[in-house]
Amino acid sequence: MAVQFAPCCQPIPGDQIMGSIWKGKGLVIHTSDCPAISKARSAKPSKWLAVEWEPEPGKLFSVRLRIMVHNTVGALGHIATEISLSGTNIQYVNMEEKQPNLYTTLHITVQVASRTSLARLMRQLRRIPEVVRIARDQGLPA
């Protein structure tokens, strides 16, 4: 059976996960707290299965991060450098200015092996003086 990881919540090893079988898609895996499936789970609870991770050493998973930073020269460079030093690959970067001249929100997609490696990366990024707030973005992709 084909297994797909839902793009809305991007589950990674260590997350609590649920699966649902769909014709033409196979087993689609979501995080248990995925906002995109809350209505579907309550409407048809019998369609959802509790599933567990199978160890897959070396496999990387995409995760979206939302990072609010002070809008200063070099902030993006400091963040990109820290991500690189952690051995993590950056797949995508987008920036939006929320409050001009004050804060910028970075949307960065990185590749991690597990929830543990994501937590370690987020701790390192929080130490950067320009970082105001960082969170895993589990909403629908932009």
Keyword list:
4-stranded antiparallel β-sheet; 4-stranded mixed β-sheet; Alpha-Beta Plaits; 142 residues; alpha+beta; elongated
Write up what this structure looks like.
The protein has 142 residues and is of the alpha+beta class. The chain has two domains: 3-51; 61-136, Alpha-Beta Plaits (2-Layer Sandwich). Helix content is 20%, strand content 39%. The chain has helices at residues 38-43, 75-85, 115-126, and strands at 3-5, 17-22, 26-31, 48-51, 61-70, 89-99, 103-112, 131-136. Strand 2 (17-22) and strand 3 form a beta hairpin. The chain is elongated and about 50 Å long.
Strands of the widest sheet, in order across it, are: 1-3-2-4
Query: Could you give the count of β-strands?
Result: 8
Major sheet summary line: 4 strands, mixed
Structural class call reads alpha+beta
Stated plainly, the CATH topology of the largest domain is called Alpha-Beta Plaits
Describe the structure in brief.
With 142 residues, this protein is an alpha+beta fold. It has helices at residues 38-43, 75-85, 115-126; strands spanning 3-5, 17-22, 26-31, 48-51, 61-70, 89-99, 103-112, 131-136. A hairpin with a 3-residue loop joins strand 2 and strand 3.
Task: Summarize the helices and strands and which ones pair or pack.
Blueprint: E1 3-5, E2 17-22, E3 26-31, H1 38-43, E4 48-51, E5 61-70, H2 75-85, E6 89-99, E7 103-112, H3 115-126, E8 131-136
Parallel strand pairs: 1-3
Antiparallel strand pairs: 2-3, 2-4, 5-7, 5-8, 6-7
